[in-house]
Each structure stands twice: as structure tokens, then as C-alpha cells.
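Batch job 17 of 40 flagged for manual review because the log was empty.
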Amino acid sequence: MTTTLIPVISAIVALVLAIVLTPPVAALARRIGAVDEPSGRRRHAMPTPLLGGLAILGAFLVPVLWFLPFTGAMRALVIGAVLMAIVGAADDIIELPPLGKLAAQVAVSIIPVAAGITIDHVTIPLIGVFDLGWVQYPVSIIWFVALVNMINFTDGVDGLTAGLAMIAAVTFLILAASLDRAEASIIAASLAGACAGFLVFNFHPARIFMGDTGSLVVGFLLAGIAVGGVMKSAAAIALVAPLLILALPILDTSFVIAKRLKYRQPVYGADRNHFHHRFANIGWGPRKTALVVYAWCALMGAVAVAIRIIPYHADDAAATLAGRLALGAIALLAVVATVWLIYRLEILKWRRTPVVTLVRERRPEPPVETPAPPR
């Protein structure tokens, strides 16, 4: 069986299994009381079962354990994913304290890092490769924990996190395959298929939520795929690609934390400043929000793939020019989409910026019409 076919089969098997496993998981969640009730910060109107991450995890594990040897780094990543699901399930059922939840995430993240899934070097385009030495271990743990929480923060709209993770996993699959990272390709394909199958029940109106059980597992696996599939390579995209592919959770978390720090609020506190809350504030429904986020994430992923596959340093001058024009066009489209997103959601207060203020000061005021005196 060719290495190209195995990821495709893995994705299909995971997709089918997620469709099969999700309904019984929803029934189990209802039976044990793991149900998300509507509240002021929630956008759903009916009690909805949690623990959907168990279906994602189960669907993911079958093709991965079938096609890959359960040894070394692979074993560490699988064990870590299972333990992260336990942490998430506990939070869905009994609601763990923030510090206890964070400590558990750190402890689980140590497992793959100790097995060698580390960011041992950083490749900076046009500059070179820098080895991190012993710093790779704390940096890698921070990467796992940070991405786990970033993905968790995005889980606020029906289908948003599952679709985002599916798109990210597909993009990582393409890049890992182009770099001959067979193991990472199968893992990414399995995760993409599992998220796609779960999305059948999670897209608006959602019949089940992945809960922390799913968001922690998805974030953990994406962190591992990013390291093993892309960041460990010496390719120019090793650092840039994950930042592009995961731009939405990174930007969302960065803006929210910056605002909480600005107003001296707890970092782990709850608020309505996430992207999905801002979409609701401008009147967008869950479907429109999810679809726009999908499109933007897919565009950022396309930029990452374009950087990898478009020959912008070819021997032929014409091919080089064509490649650079194509890459520039895609990059420009991504920049325009990003600026539009930030402007539309009012993430930055454009009216208060010096440029806008200066323009407004120079803009002539319209003449005031004085009403004629009565005759």
C-alpha cells in the first residue's frame, strides 16, 4: 500500500467512525449529566450534551494505531492525547479549578516532549537555522500548553473549533507529505477525518459539543503534528507555516489576553471579547460565523502551502517571476482578508488611531444651514 494512500484511508476510516461514535457518546453524556445548559455567555438555546471529544479521540485512534507502530514518540503522543481527554472530561463533568487544569495540562505535555517531540531548532527565513539546545524542552512544553488553551478558547460557536481543526489538520497533512513525514501525515489525516465526521453533528444547530474533552485533545494533537510534521524540518516554512495555519486561535488568544491584562482582569477569566463573541455582537449567526472563519483559515493555510510548493526560486526566470506573482497575490489576499476581519470585528479601535484622527481633523465640516425666519 502506498504511503500516499494510507493517509486517505486513515481520514475516511476516522470520518466514518466519528459519525458512528458520536450519537452513543451524546447519549452517555446525557446519562451522566455532562450537559451544557444555556446561559448568558452561551449562544445555544437548548441543553446540549458535552464529551463529544471522546468520539473524536476514538475515531482518531483506530487508524493511527492500525497503521503506525505504538512505540517511541508515537506512543507518547497517543498516551498524552488520552490523558488530555481525561482532563477535559473531568472539566466537562465537575469543572476543574483553573490552576489545577493548567497543572494537569503541563504534566501531560511533558510526556511527548520527553519522548522527543520538541522544537529543537528554529528556522528563520533568509537568516538561518538556530539550535535551541536545552531550551527546547521548556519551549516545547509551553507550545503544547499554549495551543491546547488557544484551541479551547475558540470553542464558542457550533462547529467552529471542529471545522478549524479539520482545515488545520488537512493543511499540516499536505505540508508533512511534501516533507516526507509519513507518520505526521497519517496522524494529521486521522485527526482531519475525525473532526469532519464529528462536524456532521456539531455544525449549527449542534446536537453535541466537543467540550473541553475535545478542544484539549484537538489542541494537543495539532501541537504535536505541527512539531513532528513541519517544525522539526529545516524547511523555510518550519516556523512560518504553523503560525499561518493556526493564525486564528493565536490572534484570538493574543487580543483577548492583551485586553484582560490592560484592564487588570484575570487571564483565565471569562468574558465576551473572543472573535466568536464579536461576530455575535455585529449580528452574525453561528452558521455565517463558522463559514467565514473556515474561509479565512483555509486562506491562511493556502498561503502556507503556497510558500512550500510554488517555485519562486526556480532556475527559469519566467517560472520564478510567475511563482513570485502567484505567491504575492495569495499573500495580498490573505493580508486584505485579515485587515478586513480585524476592522469588521472592531478588534482595534480604528477611530482612535492617529492617522484617522488627523484625517478627521483635516476634513472640512459640512456647512450648517440656518433656517429662514418666519414670514
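Reviewer: the log was empty due to a logging misconfiguration, but the result itself is present. Confidence is low (pLDDT under 50) at residues 353-363, 368-372. Unflagging and moving on to job 18.
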